[in-house]
Here is the input.
Amino acid sequence: MRTVAEFEAVARERLEPAHYDYFAGGAQDEITLRENETAFRQLRLVPRVLRGSDKRDLSLTLLGTPSSMPILVAPTAFHRLAHPDGELATARAAARAGTIMIVSMAATTAIEDIAAAAREVAPDPGLWFQLYLQPDLEFTEAIVRRAEAAGVKAFVVTVDSPVLGRRDRDDRNAFHDLPPGLAVENLRNLGENRSGGNASHVREIVMSAGLNWDHIAWLRSKTKLPVLIKGVLHAEDARLAVHHGVAGLVVSNHGGRQLDTVPATIDVLPDIAAAVGGALPVLLDGGIRRGTDIVKALALGADAVGIGRPIVWGLAAGGREGVSDVLEMLRADFDQALALCGGRNPADLTPDQVRR
Here is the structure.
């Protein structure tokens, strides 16, 4: 398989229809879901010439975490719906690729086990932890301590979910809970036996409409690790993030799964990059399917991109090897596009190389 679309076709054949719809679907009419990809197709690349190199260097360091390429594994929930090895396979593949995996708080495998799987491949894997701040701050702090103990290197707080977006596909399929035998393991009460199945209580993720900048300040006071916020689409929120001492931003619309008709992430990226002014790293997810998409995002101001659904399609198609294949396919595709644009490393890409 040579494209993300081919991996998705195989994944669709292998997944339960309701589970495929869960991963593939978006909010309501799925306008934003489609726009995330369409917006990239509407941009044109303008290459530079006579300044290339026989070898490109794709590596970078984000907030102290090295990565072999500016392609990260974005947080996605419920990997064991896609493959029995679930997040363990994803973690091993990300570690093999030398890139950062942002572990979902809604993982179907516990963070300790994910970290252990990654360390089977690399002694010091790049693991970050995606966090929904819970109204019960004592429980939230317990999750933070648990993730820290597992060895994560940063926290990525999802801030675009004051309530859960309505996803019509899930409603039609009556898919609102995990099947028996699966659970959101990072929300299993601490001190209880994680191998005990239903013998221990697993809390539900609670969306908090009252989330505000004070909660981000609270989290920063509870950890020495970098705190990023994920779900920024407005330039003023980016400026506020700098003011409030956030370590980094993820320009994201939740893969089109929260508020439908919001802009594609690539369309708002230039304004957000300008608002930040290089004060902190800017990441982007949503709609990345080709190396040319990555080039466009980096040229317009992103330091790195996150890959969500393509990772799940690789996992469903081939477990760890499938995820590895997707990551290496995108690495090679990006490297070729970078070379064709006259770049030796991602920093060579500039906004004037992208036109609408």
Summary: DSSP finds twelve helices and twelve strands in the chain.
